[in-house]
Design a protein that fits this description.
21% strand; 11 helices; Rossmann fold; homodimer; 6-stranded parallel beta sheet; alpha/beta; 283 residues
């Protein structure tokens, strides 16, 4: 069955009220469209938890620090809806920018701590934009649960933080990264890679995995990260935005591997910026 | 019947769920305690709208820019509860600071525009503190409606702004200022006035009322405000924080009276800061 496409907050709320009256719970999958198998796995997780599913499609201008990145962000609603239809999605929530940010809009939700460094350092304002729009989406849909991928692990940490801090009555569910056969983390930005870029791209996951292994084996963190950086540039990455070991819980920087951790990287292939992260397992 | 006093978010939510299951709606009256007839009128408004009533009592440290003001803020929970009992309040929500701001708390809700100038100019961080704690209270109680006095008119404008912007599913109800017989706006800070200060204090409302009348009669705004300032200092006020004409809707400054407006003032009597505001009627 094709999902119903909703354009106004009033209609969304009316439909959610209707679902609740019938005794259903509601799971929200926030997306910026350009859906791929990673997004679909979030829908499947929400279905598996027994929810009626709302997928929001909204390319949020306030989280793009670079207007060119916003311009180039892939958009194809018809294709997205076609992908969602077979999964039994109930509602596609696809407001336009004016419905989302009405005249006089002047509120910001911001998170310190977990939002600092990594993507927060090189994308000023990005996480304020994310926190504000996700707060809105959660409260518009009044969802029982919301599903996010771990590829944007720092984003997930920011969302967990403000949902806890503001007492938003929703369960946040973080889902595993989906990868192509060659290891490349699925991302809407992958379609913008050149043919050569696409061949180089899996080096990011390979370098992270190798570095995680070397850190797990007790090698010096600084030396391992320096080696991983070098290997990325040699593989053909244009530049490295960051490559860092951080604590799993609060994302604080770690010079030594002495508690649960993840490795985070962002790197450019031409003008396409890719991010990825892997867990570093304790012995 | 005495209201039940609740100290944890979990218990609050359980009780609210219970009320909803019985088919009730919920009205929230956020306060910092030190209750007076103004607060009680908010409770009565919530009752008149047919809600079960939650009164929150929480002296929010993050909205005090001056630690001395926080120290001196009057606190007497037993007296507050005694005042609420005859009104049929269902729940007093009185968390301690650790329940409200758990370890690692790092989120801020901030509003630009309406929060600028007036109290926003002289109390840095004040409205961030208000917006953040009121967002929390609204989402903790999941109230259908929340009641605020118009004495803190700018605060009410800030709250209306972020509730609209963040799509918080609650109706915000602004209630008229309650005044003593001599015109002094009721305020928890009034008990801190000296005997002389208490006698001088009504001059604030008198000066605002006279200025509003003069502006309504077509007199020059700048001249009227200068005269009102002079009369306040002559009456015995120590200093004037602000005295301004602002647009009723978005609180933008007005040099001329050409649309719906209010007059706003803040002034000191010794170390006690009083605020008040009056509507300026169109002809």
């Amino acid at each position: 069955m094709k999902p119903v496409i909703v354009r106004t907050i009033d209609e969304l709320r009316e439909r959610v009220r209707g679902l609740r009256k019938q005794g259903h719970t509601v799971g929200l999958v926030p997306t910026m469209g350009a859906l791929h198998a990673g997004h679909l796995s979030l829908v499947q997780a929400a279905k598996a938890d027994g929810h009626k599913v709302i997928v929001s499609i909204f390319v949020n201008p306030t989280q793009f620090n670079d207007p060119k990145d916003l311009d180039k962000y892939p958009r194809d609603e018809a294709a997205d809806v076609a992908l969602l239809a077979p999964l039994g999605v109930d509602i596609v929530w696809a407001p336009d920018v004016d419905e989302m940010y009405a005249d006089g809009f002047s509120t910001t939700v911001s998170v310190s701590g977990v939002s600092e460094g990594l993507c927060g350092a090189t994308r000023p304002g990005h996480f304020d934009g994310v926190a504000t729009v996700v707060t809105k989406l959660l409260l518009q849909a009044q969802a029982d649960a919301a599903y996010f991928g771990q590829k944007d692990f720092q984003q997930l940490a920011v969302i967990n933080r403000f949902v806890t801090d503001l007492n938003i009555p929703v369960e946040i569910v973080g889902c595993p990264i989906l990868r192509e056969d060659d290891g490349l983390a699925m991302s809407s930005r992958n379609v913008r890679l050149s043919e050569t870029g696409r061949k180089t791209a899996p080096a990011l996951f390979l370098a992270l995995s190798k570095a995680a292994e070397d850190i797990e084996s007790g090698n010096d963190v600084t030396r391992v990260l320096a080696h991983a950086s070098k290997s990325l540039l040699e593989a053909g990455f244009t530049s490295i935005d960051y490559l860092e070991l951080r604590a799993s819980d609060n994302l604080s920087p770690m010079a030594q591997f002495d508690r649960p951790a993840r490795l985070f990287a962002a790197a450019f292939l031409g003008d396409v910026r890719l991010i990825d992260n892997v867990v570093v397992k304790g012995r």
